[in-house]
Structures are given as structure tokens and as C-alpha cells.
Write a structure and sequence with these properties.
The chain is mainly alpha-helical and 505 residues long. It is 75% helix and 3% strand. The protein has a two-stranded antiparallel ribbon.
Length: 505
């Protein structure tokens, strides 16, 4: 088979396993400088391939594209089955983007066990992209579980003082959710006549009581990953103790896998239950938006503030998705992408200033605008994007969710607006304390502004902050047909929902 044929017919496999190939090669390397450049080269190559994937993607259809399917474990009808639609292709691209930025963010921050750290990053990349591409539930679960190991190591080996506690907490929470998902997966397998085929499972009709049972199992698994209130308590610990690259991966990609699970499994496979439980989930989302915002407002640690802001921002996402209208779901998906860009950029900013000062306490800053002006400019733009300022990516996502909320139930707007106001308060308060106030810093003459490597990483995020902000249609067009099809899958059973619930009682 020629390289052209391999590229045309196995693009997803190449994107998934290229980082793993790079990790295997690292096993035989010793020079740390070479190890860093090798990892960066493989991550950049993978990102370029995900970019090609997006450009080759046909956004005029909801059908799965770049499909690869081969028998794997025939006894249980398990296939190596890959494909992407308008929803998943966006997050394959996001994962490719975040990957090489994580390498740049770790260039000088990781000083011990560099080879092992880079191997963990590459294995993580393979698992994350695999999750978004898998169309066999068993294969999906394999990739989902593989992610646990490198992330556990990244936090537990290269994290802060309480890294072991945070790593174990992250592992136990996520593993608990995974076990519940495994139970639901097995039930679906037998109910569908012995199939893990995700598109086939979407086409099946299940009685309401079974849907409700499976929805609860999947909900807990995905809510932990988001994380939704009250399953969020692992997140601040994991973020605070993780190295910068670990925080970027958590914020940029891992949190999106929970909401992706709702889109890929709960909504199309369990439509009646999804509609039935929508309002309780929206209530939990509203609590997360406001509660997470006030928790962020109370923080003195810059990294913990941004971690709690993720709880609030992901509350906007889950609320938008469970509105079950076009504006809500498209706004939720776009905000998933936006959060991956903006919050990753903010964690990168925290990591850069921490490398220079060895502190994250807001009370120790106040001089950034004077001593590191370029850093202060980037932090200002990313802070504006996080609070949803017009012209940035955060604005259009929140705007669509507001439109969707207005269509569904106008009272939701009150809570969303409170969340937006609190979000603006904690982001502006954080920026004011970092950039302005003191005119000197202890050892201030040694604090240097961002270098070329750091600027490249931040500009990569800045491009998408402005691109989505000024021309969101490029991204909305990608998801439009897939979202319309998803709504038809859910709402197709809407008229039957009341009858199904009554029958269950």
C-alpha cells in the first residue's frame, strides 16, 4: 500500500497512533534535548494531520466520515471501528492543538524524568484522540480507561506537594464513573443482541425504565468527568497539584469527554430518559454556574481560581446541551471548544508566571503590567475571553446558550446573567491583582517577560480566541448538520415520552 493510499484510507488510525509510535521510539533515547524535540515533532505532525482532517471533512452531512472498520474480537462482535462526525472532528482537532502546546509548556518546567513525562504525554494523546474517534463501544471504553494511567502519573510524579493525594482522588473518582459506564455498556450489549456498534445502538428503541436506568449510570460517569456539581470536588485538587501541561490537558480535553459522552451516548441512545431528566440536570448546571463562580471569587491561589471557574463554565455547557434546541446545543458544543482554548491559555499563563516567581498567590503579584508587559497583554485578552467579552470566542458561545435558554424557559436567563456577572467579577479581580498595584517585586530585576517559545504557545491559543470571536460561522458550519440530526434523534421520540413514562408507572 502506498503512502497516499495509507493517508486516504487510514487517516484516523495514523492520527491516533502516531503519538504512540513516537512514545515507543523515546524508550531508546537518553539525550533530554533530543527527547523534547522528538516529542514536539511528533505532536506538531499529529496536529498538522488533524488540520488536514478538518479541511477534508464534509460539513454538509451528519454521516460518519473517514470510517475504518475491521474485525477485532469476533467472538463478542467487537470491531476496530473508527469514524468522525461534525461533533467529534472538532475535538480531535482541539486535542491535536493542545498536544504540542503542552510540550512547549513543559520545555523548562519539567526537569526530572523528562523522558517518562514525554512518553506519558504521547500515550495520553493517543488515548484522547481515540476516544473521539471510536465507533465501537468496547474500543471507546479501552481508550477511555487508558487515559487514566498517564494522567495519574502526570499528577502523581510531576505534581506539587500534595500530588499523591490529588492523583489518587482523580483516579478513584474517574474509575468509579468508568465502572458504572461499563455496567451500562454491558446492559446495552445484551439488549442490542450482542453488539457494541455505536451507530447501531443509536438506532435501537428501549423501554423507558431501561433508558432511565442506563441514563443514571451514564450520567454519573460523564458528570464526574465534566465535572458537574456535586461531582466536582476532585477537579481543584487535580488542577492545583498538576504540572502546567497536566492542567492544560485537563481543561483543554479531558473535561470535554464528559459532555461528549452525553452527545454521543445519552442523547441518541436514551432520548426519552434524556428529555425526562433534562430539568434536574439544568438545575444542577445552574448551581454549578453560580456556586463555581462564587468559589472562584473567594480564591487567593490563581490556579485554584481558574480551576473553579471551569466548574462554572462547564455548567454553561451542560445547561446548553440539555436545552435540546439548536441554539442551546450548538452553543454548548462551541463553548466546549472555547473553554478548551481559553482556560488552557489561562493555565499556561499561570504556569509561566509560576516558573518565574514560584508562587501562585495573588497577593504576591501586582507588578505584571510594569515588569512583564507582554505577558500582561496576553493574560488580559484571555481573561476577557473567559468572561465572554464581545469579539472573543467566549462571547458567541454564551450568546447562543442565552438564546437557547430564552427559547426554552425565560427564567433561566436570570441565573445565566448572574453567572456571567460573577464570572466578570472574578476574572477582572484576578487580572487587577496580577497586573496592577505594586510597582516592584522581590527580585523583580530577575523577572523576565515571555520568550519566543512561550509567545508561540500563547499566540496559537490567541488565534482561535479571535477567530471564533469574529467568525464563528466557520466552526458552527462544521457541527450544524450533526446537531440537527442529533436533535431529530432525541425529539423523534418526544411525543412518545409522556406515554412511555405513564406506562412505566
Amino acid at each position: 500500500m502506498s503512502w497516499t493510499e495509507l493517508y486516504n484510507h487510514h487517516l484516523l488510525s495514523i492520527i491516533i497512533f502516531l503519538p504512540l509510535l513516537g512514545a515507543v521510539a523515546l524508550l531508546f533515547m537518553k539525550n533530554e534535548r533530543l527527547i523534547r524535540w522528538w516529542t514536539l515533532a511528533f505532536m506538531v505532525a499529529d496536529f498538522m494531520l488533524t488540520t488536514c482532517l478538518v479541511f477534508k471533512f464534509d460539513s454538509t452531512t451528519h454521516r460518519m466520515q473517514f470510517v475504518e472498520r475491521y474485525g477485532w474480537i469476533e467472538r463478542f462482535n467487537i470491531d476496530y471501528y473508527l469514524g468522525v462526525d461534525g461533533i467529534s472532528v472538532l475535538f480531535v482537532f482541539l486535542t491535536g492543538l493542545v498536544g504540542w502546546i503542552c510540550v512547549l509548556a513543559s520545555w523548562t518546567a519539567i526537569e526530572k524524568r523528562v523522558k517518562e513525562f514525554m512518553i506519558a504525554l504521547l500515550v495520553m494523546q493517543t488515548a484522547m484522540i481515540g476516544v473521539f474517534c471510536a465507533l465501537d463501544f468496547f474500543l471507546f471504553y479501552v481508550f477511555w480507561e487508558i487515559m487514566l494511567i498517564p494522567m495519574y502519573l502526570i499528577i502523581g510524579v510531576w505534581g506539587g506537594a500534595n500530588r499523591i493525594y490529588s492523583a489518587v482522588k482523580f483516579f478513584l473518582y474517574t474509575l468509579a464513573g468508568s465502572i458504572l459506564m461499563l455496567v451500562g455498556m454491558i446492559v446495552l450489549y445484551f439488549k442490542a443482541g450482542g453488539s457494541f456498534d455505536i451507530p447501531y445502538l443509536m438506532e435501537q428503541k428501549y423501554e423507558f425504565t431501561l433508558q432511565a436506568f442506563l441514563f443514571i449510570l451514564f450520567f454519573v460517569a460523564f458528570a464526574i468527568k465534566v465535572p458537574m456539581f456535586p461531582f466536582h470536588t476532585w477537579l481543584p485538587d487535580a488542577h492545583v497539584e498538576a504540572p502546567t501541561a497536566g492542567s492544560i490537558i485537563l481543561a483543554g480535553v479531558l473535561l470535554k469527554m464528559g459532555t461528549y459522552g452525553f452527545l454521543r451516548f445519552s442523547f441518541p441512545m436514551l432520548p426519552d430518559a434524556s428529555l425526562f431528566f433534562a430539568k434536574p440536570v439544568i438545575v444542577l448546571s445552574i448551581i454549578a454556574i453560580i456556586y463555581g463562580g462564587f468559589l472562584a471569587l473567594a480564591q487567593e491561589d490563581m490556579k485554584k481560581l481558574i480551576a473553579y471557574s471551569s466548574v462554572s463554565h462547564m455548567g454553561f455547557v451542560t445547561l446548553g446541551l440539555f436545552l435540546f434546541n439548536k441554539n442551546g446545543i450548538e452553543g454548548g458544543i462551541l463553548q466546549m471548544f472555547n473553554h478548551g482554548i481559553t482556560t488552557s491559555a489561562l493555565f499556561l499563563c499561570v504556569g509561566l508566571i509560576y516558573e518565574r516567581t514560584r508562587t501562585r498567590l495573588l497577593g504576591h503579584y501586582g507588578w505584571a503590567a510594569k515588569l512583564v508587559p507582554w505577558y500582561a497583554v496576553f493574560l488580559f485578552i484571555f481573561s476577557l475571553a473567559s468572561l465572554g467579552f464581545p469579539g472573543t470566542n467566549g462571547f458567541i458561545g454564551e450568546f447562543l446558550i442565552l438564546l437557547g435558554a430564552y427559547e426554552e424557559y425565560k427564567l433561566y436567563l436570570v441565573f445565566l446573567i448572574i453567572g456571567i456577572i460573577v464570572g466578570a467579577a472574578y476574572m477582572l479581580w484576578m487580572y487587577q491583582r496580577v497586573a496592577f498595584g505594586k510597582h516592584h517585586a522581590e527580585g523583580g530585576h530577575e523577572i523576565k517577560d515571555v520568550n519566543l517559545r512561550e509567545v508561540v504557545a500563547m499566540v496559537a491559543f490567541l488565534v482561535f480566541v479571535l477567530w471564533v470571536g469574529f467568525h464563528p460561522v466557520d466552526f458552527l458550519n462544521i457541527v450544524d448538520d450533526s446537531v440537527a440530526h442529533l436533535i431529530s434523534q432525541v425529539k423523534g421520540g418526544e411525543l412518545l415520552t409522556e406515554a412511555a413514562v405513564e406506562a412505566a408507572h
